[in-house]
Amino acid sequence: MKSNLFLRVIIGVFCVFLSFKTQASPIFENQAEQWVNDKGKQLLQTFGESDVTRKYALLDAMMVDCIDFNYISKFVMGRYWRQMNPDQQQNYQTLFKRYALSLYKGFPLDFDSSTIDFDITKVIPTDKSTTVRAKINLQKNQSAEQQPLSDIFVDFVLHRNNEKIQIIDLKLGESSLILSYRSRFYEMIAQNDDDVTWFLEDLADITEAAERTNQEKLQQAEY
């Protein structure tokens, strides 16, 4: 139960995220804490939207605004990024964003967000990024008769992209979302005999299938 709820709240939304050097000014601790607080409250409010089409539109806009898809897509591909020509790189980054935006819609997002709360417990700045640790509280509005749920801690890894604060990874314990993406994509590339052209074709097929499924769900929800 606890694990499934975490997947819905975190991975389902940010499913969608360092070997690439960045030139950026540091994020101060109070800025990082305020950013996560504000975006977290906005996220929970969006989960409470009853109209599914509007909810997805708001979540899409939030993800595009809050996540550095270009940075993450390069990291996920690793050494294979340099094997792609400029046209392939551009095609891949467009596909990656579509893939991420389609993937979270496969998770149930109709839970009661009023039962979830969070607190910022730690801010860890470094030269290249700032990590904000949030405690996800699942015990809000829980009755005394129910078995208490343990707190969940999630790390938001942030950097500044052209003066804009954005997410570049999410971590639960030792699990990194972008490393999970990399592992999956490397597996797909290996199955295609290390041919990035075939990989891009497969990624396009997967993305288009997910988008069709999501569109069908939206149409069904309207009736």
Account of the 3D structure:
- The protein is α+β, with helices and mostly antiparallel strands and 223 residues long.
- The protein has one domain (2-180, 194-221): Nuclear Transport Factor 2, Chain: A (Roll).
- A hairpin with a 2-residue loop joins β4 and β5 (175-176).
- It is globular and about 45 Å long.
- The chain is 52% helix and 17% strand.
- A five-stranded antiparallel sheet has the order 1-2-3-4-5.
- The protein has helices spanning 2-14, 29-47, 52-66, 69-77, 86-103, 177-191, 196-221; strands at residues 117-125, 130-137, 152-161, 164-172, 175-176.
- The longest helix is centred in the C-terminal third of the chain and has 26 residues, at 196-221.
- α2 (29-47) packs antiparallel against α3, α4 (69-77) packs across α5 (86-103) and α4 (69-77) packs across α6.
- What's the architecture, going by CATH? Roll
| Main pleated-sheet profile | 5 strands, antiparallel
Secondary structure tally: strands = 5
The level of helicity is 40-55%
Write out the strand line-up for the largest beta sheet, numbering strands in chain order: 1-2-3-4-5
The domain count comes to: 1
Cα distance, first to last residue?
30 Å
- Oligomeric state as shown: single chain
CATH topology descriptor: Nuclear Transport Factor 2, Chain: A
Provide the CATH top-level class. Alpha Beta
What is the name of the CATH superfamily? Tgt2/MlaC
Helix count, DSSP H or I runs of 4 or more residues: 7
Poorly predicted ranges (pLDDT <50, ≥5 residues)?
A: 1-23
The portion of residues forming beta strands comes to 15-25%
Structural class: alpha+beta
Radius of gyration: 18 Å
Q: Averaging pLDDT over every residue, what do you get?
A: 84
Shape: globular
Element string (H = helix, E = strand): HHHHHEEEEEHH
